[in-house]
Amino acid sequence: xxxxxxxxxxxxxxxxxxxxxxxxxxxxxxxxxxxxxxxxxxxxxxxxxxxxxxxxxxxxxxxxxxxxxxxxxxxxxxxxxxxxxxxxxxxxxxxxxxxxxxxxxxxxxxxxxxxxxxxxxxxxxxxxxxxxxxxxxxxxxxxxxxxxxxxxxxxxxxxxxxxxxxxxxxxxxxxxxxxxxxxxxxxxxxxxxxxxxxxxxxxxxxxxxxxxxxxxxxxxxxxxxxxxxxxxxxxxxxxxxxxxxxxxxxxxxxxxxxxxxxxxxxxxxxxxxxxxxxxxxxxxxxxxxxxxxxxxxxxxxxxxxxxxxxxxxxxxxxxxxxxxxxxxxxxxxxxxxxxxxxxxxxxxxxxxxxxx
Length: 356
Fold this sequence. Notes:
single chain, 356 residues, alpha+beta, 39% helix, globular
């Protein structure tokens, strides 16, 4: 397991991040070397900008959008965040149609902003970030993420089906062939920006684990037509190479959703799946799960155990099964950060839907 000796700057803490967009609008060329004359204020009435956030437990396609408030050509917003620092999205609409966007990193302890350059036909031709990664960095990340999402099954299963006679042979092939092949497919044409390398590398490793390492038996049957026994927990030792520190693991690309996939995969796949938390206390369940995972993850970090407990509750909620009163009490007493509040809020939304 990777760890950091430095005190973590990030963490799970409900709060708000401040964000500003400064719009610059340009008219289209009229063909004789000059541009059209535009009424900027009238044009801006049709422009709506939102900041998109993804919960710790959200999957691909899930996001919440907070509208920005406009004064002239400047948009401002305070965005609800679950982490001190997290990756968020920008969504720009013109006359109710999505015309573009991107990603940003928001921090509860400091304001962020961009300059957005747009033509009157709705084309966003530049974004200047006032701090942090540049537009080029974010475009590179988008290309890397696209490569990961489009990865063919061959990068997740051995070419030689006979390897499935031994789970150790399969794992050896995954580490020596499949993981390097997958990583190269994602990054060989798109070099990860230096300031992003830690958490983007970890996103790719988490995604690979969720698609290749964890669904061992399912992949064997689906892609190779081979029925195999579930291997022992030690077969999942690749999980120990993932960095679960708050400063790395809590930053997750909006599109890849690698964190949710990994957490859910750990609960569902190893040794036929780990037991649901049910009405067991958080501490008791985490002790049991930490012991069971120890052949794969030598020392299970508290953050990972907290997120796994939260994910177990969320899977129940997402299955339209509200939390029991005992579970609510266990959640209120079981977490030292705000994971419990996030889970309880998700349950309240389910209860609200059921009462409609």
